[in-house]
Every structure is written in C-alpha cells, then in structure tokens.
Amino acid sequence: MSTRRQSRFPLRTLLLVLMVLPPIAIFAGIPWLKQQPDSLVFLLSGIAAILTVVASFGVAILTDRQIDEWQRSAARFSGQWGWTIGAGLVALLLSFPPFRDLIVATVADWADVANPDQKLVVLAFAFGFGGVVIAQGLSTMLLSIGWALWMSRSPREPS
Amino acid sequence: MDVAVATRTVMKNKIRVLRAERQWSQAELATRVGVSRNSINSIENGHFDPSLSLAFAIADAFESKIEDIFQRDPPKRDS
Fold this sequence. Notes:
A: mainly alpha; 2 domains; 6 helices; 0% strand; B: 79 residues; mainly alpha; two-stranded antiparallel sheet; 2 strands; globular
C-alpha cells in the first residue's frame, strides 16, 4: 500500500499549461478574433477546447494515481455533488433576468453585435448547457454499464 | 443481510490504542502505511472504512492481524 510519488512534475506542469493556456489565449485574442472569419474562429475555439479537455483528463489521471483511497473518496464526493450543484445553479440563474442580460451582453460584446436577439442568445446558451448535461448523463450511463460488465468478467485464473 | 444494511455496518478499530502503545503519531502511521494523515484520522475515528488492502497494510504496520485491529459493530437496521 503506497501512494505513488514519482517525479511527474514536468508532465504535470506541461498538462496544466495546456489546460489553462488555450482559454486564456482565446479570451486574450478576442479583439483579434473579432476581425477573423467565423470558420477560423470556430476552428481555433474548437482546438482550444479539445486541448483543455484532453489536458484536464491527463491531469485527472495523474492526480488519481497519486492519491489514496480516502482522497479518492473525497474527490468522488465533491466531484459528484459539485457537478450537480453547479449544473442546478446555472439552470436556476438562467431564470433570473440580470444573469440572462449578462450573458447576452457578454456574447454581444465578444461577437461584436450591436443589437443581439436576446431570446436567441439565451436559448442558444440553454441548449448548449443542456447538451453538455445530457452528454454527461449519457456518458455516465454508458460508463456505468461498461464498469459493471468489466467488474463481472471471469476471473483471471481459477480459484 | 442485504446490501443496504451491510454497507451501514460500522467498523470499530484499535488504531488509536495501538498507536499510543508505540508512541506513533497519525502522520507517522500514515507514512508507514503510505497514505495521507487524513486517511488515518478518518479511519481511526470511524468515519471511513479502509479497503481490504489498506486494512492489511495497517495490520502489517502494527504486526497484528486484521481482526485484532478492526471489529465489526452489529448492523444498524431501520426500525
């Protein structure tokens, strides 16, 4: 029984940089991105999102290998309820006009649109958010089935 | 015993006593076993049940048998 404490610092640092840098670069580059064609903006945003997600997975895997079962249990508890509370909070906030106005104003500023259709922006945000929640729910179900099947497999050697 | 009742079974342990006998701190036991001090603290206080492998590691650290360190309280049934 031992937690792994190998020197993974360079890899972890690299992954953390890859996780944090793309969104920062996108936000910092908004003035420049406003002058670019939509296709380029979507391409760069997609690459940034993929880099961040993949690097996040890497950091999560490295972290999981270095923590003990108590810490893993704590992470499972906080992750499970953190995601649930966060998702519920966004859904709740969407019903408050000041929050909706903030979303619309922010999107309008980033997209450089003078008079955005408020309903369209809020619906797009809600659909995007809903899509993520549904995708997470489906992924959770599939992984749960996969986990159950994997754990029910035959023993490696007869006992 | 159904699953719900089994998982509510509380484990008692003698970790605090065994540590005191050896004058080990929680941090020292944690280092010997290879887990965090929080793990030892939670297990010792009965808030967290260790896995079998961790229970064996703790028993090894004290040079004892698992059953000499961990005992099971009767399951709590809903009335």
